[in-house]
Amino acid sequence: MDIVLFHSTYGLRPAVRDAAERLRAAGHEVFTPDLFEGRTFDTVEEGSAARDALGKDELIRRAVLAAAPHSGRGLVYAGFSFGASLAQTLALGDEHARGLLLLHGTSDLAPNASVDDLPVQLHVAEPDPFETDDWLSAWYLQMGRAGAEVEVYRYAGAGHLYTDPDLPDYDEEAAEATWRVALGFLDSLTEARKSD
For residue 137, what are the domain limits? Predict the structure, then answer.
């Protein structure tokens, strides 16, 4: 599959590049746009300040421009935390999207959001201060009404960005479980494409 993988508010850190290499080793083509143009951050507060300074519209514009050269081939959109919210926005706006892989994050849906059985997989900590139970329940229902086929995986006791080994949130067991399930999801999308 062709995958565009968006980084979190920490920027294009080694963990994102390592994740891309893991996906490439499984046979996928992976693109990792750098929406912060080389800047990375040591704390979520610093990254959030940079994100907010750029603004949501500018970041969506950058994400769309980064994905556009590849979108005609039918992309899987993926992302970490804030990057997951961008991935969701782009996937729901791309009629050729093959799937959506959300790691640690979701986003609001436009009131008229509509997709045609888009496969979606979400991996998130439990509990997660940024993805509360009430929010996820509402999000799940909204995604279903929009036409998405959603799977949600929760990881008890893990920190928010538990797949990044360079952060305090890291949880090796949860991270490895996430990648096993996510790779199976991507394999299923590959098989579905072959049967088209």
Answer: 2-194
